[in-house]
Specification:
The chain is an alpha+beta fold. The chain is 34% helix and 43% strand. The protein has two domains: 3-91, Alpha-Beta Plaits (2-Layer Sandwich), CATH 3.30.70; 98-217, Nuclear Transport Factor 2, Chain: A (Roll). It is built from six helices and ten strands; from the N terminus they run E-H-E-E-H-H-E-H-E-E-H-E-E-E-E-H.
């Protein structure tokens, strides 16, 4: 769940307001509950700004409002705006994130060792940093060939996706199908451009066959016990 507070204001002093925001973030480091904040300007009125502040909940926002630094900066902020500031408090009702759809499509393609062209840009860049090699290929067909050369398919065991401002990041663990089969674990940073995946930076901590996996798992278990 999330809570959004909108601030609608007019000002000729946006640079000074930005400096106030920077100071407030420095002064409240480690205590503020604000997740993110963005400021937009009206294309048709350069004095009209809208600030979008995101919190995990309304209660979290109230904790933020109660910080002494928030009160201290409020009067200075009010002196820099023209007229009154309009506040709108918004609770989340429904949410849709195209990045989640793209992450699901990418997972399906990894499982099948075949990229769905509509999900990717024509020049999608795949960069792999693996223990045995560095790989760099461009285009859906080249990425498909790379996946297919590695394995006919994969069974995903872990696929933890987190949206980022430019796309999404994920932690993965999968087993290749066919023989020999091996376990691969790592992370990927995916860039989205105009609604399609344009870059995949993949790092792999290791690809282990059954014997190597057993040895590594045993070493981890022994280390935890000690």
């Amino acid at each position: 769940m999330s809570f959004i507070q909108i601030e609608d204001l007019h000002t000729d002093h946006i640079a000074e307001i930005s400096e106030l925001g920077d100071q407030w973030r420095r002064d409240t480091a480690g205590r503020r509950t604000l997740l993110s904040d963005r400021v937009y300007v009206d294309r048709n009125d350069p004095t009209h700004y809208v600030a979008v502040n995101e919190f995990t909940s309304y209660e979290s926002a109230m904790v933020n409002s109660a910080l002494p630094e928030t009160d201290a900066i409020a009067a200075r902020f009010a002196a820099l705006v023209t007229g009154d500031v309009t506040y709108i408090d918004l609770d989340l009702v429904t949410a849709h994130d195209a990045r989640s759809e793209l992450a699901d499509a990418f997972r399906h393609d990894v499982e099948q060792s075949a990229l769905t062209s509509s999900t990717y840009t024509d020049d999608v860049l795949f960069e792999g940093m693996f223990p045995q090699a560095l790989v760099r290929v461009t285009g859906p067909d080249a990425v498909t060939a790379l996946l297919a050369e590695d394995a006919a398919g994969r069974t995903v065991e872990t696929w933890d996706v987190q949206p980022t401002p430019t796309g999404f990041a994920l932690e993965y663990a999968w087993r290749t199908t066919g023989a020999p089969s091996y376990l691969s674990v790592g992370t990927a940073l995916v860039t989205v451009t105009d609604g399609r995946i344009s870059r995949i930076l993949c790092t792999c901590a290791g690809s282990w066959d059954e014997a190597a996996e057993a040895a590594i798992t045993g070493a981890i278990t022994a280390g935890s016990a000690s």
